[in-house]
Specification:
This protein is mostly helical. The protein has a domain of 135 residues. The protein is built from 16 helices and 2 strands. A two-stranded antiparallel ribbon has the order 1-2. Helix 2 packs parallel to helix 12, helix 10 packs across helix 11 and helix 13 packs across helix 15. The longest helix is centred in the first third of the chain and has 29 residues. The protein is globular and about 65 Å long.
Amino acid sequence: MSNVVALSRPRRFADLSAQVATFAQSFAFERRGGDDVHWLKENGEFLNILEASTVSFDPSALDVYAPIYDALPRRFAFFPMYYRFLLSICLDLEDLGMPGDTGENLVKRCVKQDLMGSELSDLQRAEARRLLSRRGADTRVDVGLDDRLRAFCGRTETFSTPNKKAAYELTHIVFYLSKYGRQDPNLPESASASLHFAGLLAFLEGNVDLLSEICIAMRFADVAVPPQWMALLTSDVAGFDIVVAPQSSLQDDYHSYLMVQWYRFLSGQQRFSETVPEGSLRFVSHSPRGATALRELSVLLFDREDRMSDWSRMRTRLQQDLTPNALSSLDEAAQSTPHFDEFFQGFARARDGQLRLT
């Protein structure tokens, strides 16, 4: 039996390493040029999920980044406005096995130039603090930052109506406060409802990109992920086609792919699920586009003067006007979390009710 295990593990290891190398080549050199800010975003996100996941692969799979790593000090000197992107790429490469101490030197330059002081957003300050602390920098310059971040997470009414910007900020606050699952983020009790509310909106919209981030944040915050949401993220609906298409639009579904894959990594999957071709990769989601249960429900509620904050009563009034698919999705959403009735109180925006957490 031990021989079987010894033989199978290297095959999985080698398979993942080959996939990582293929993705690295495409993101680093095939999809975009290095002078494109979107190149920074794509490569930063790709390396980030590798560093923050539980998978193991041969560090040589990232050798393609060696010249990019060597050029980071020069880029940093000329593009200080992108210091968070550049520092993230540098630190992740080093923590994934790239030899060198460039990250420590760049952190010292960030502190000396007070680049964190250029940030207006609490979320960006939190990201900068997280990056600088990875090489031991003292970033205790804003003693109220954590309190403000946690207060935002605990304001549940923010997340009971569609607001993608707020939902993504919620997930990233959890990422930074938890150090990507490495410590307890110490969120207020109401933040669990906030995550459920934001997740319900993503689930009803079929937004696997946002739903993946929410489920990852829930894992990092030690909040149970509803089985129905997990099932969606591991289903064919959340699948992708990966094709080589050098002349096609770069407005593809790469980010959704990376977020779904990150969730799957954290759930125990040990390889990229798809066969990865070589070349300029494009990612095409299987998720249906167009009308969703969320949109149908919103349109119907907006046009009704008799809307109420009680879901069971509104379901009875709306069921004849909803399509079968939308009604089924709503029923599944209602069954997925005990927070649904509280969520609907805010979502309905009805005269008879307001959001009340019990």
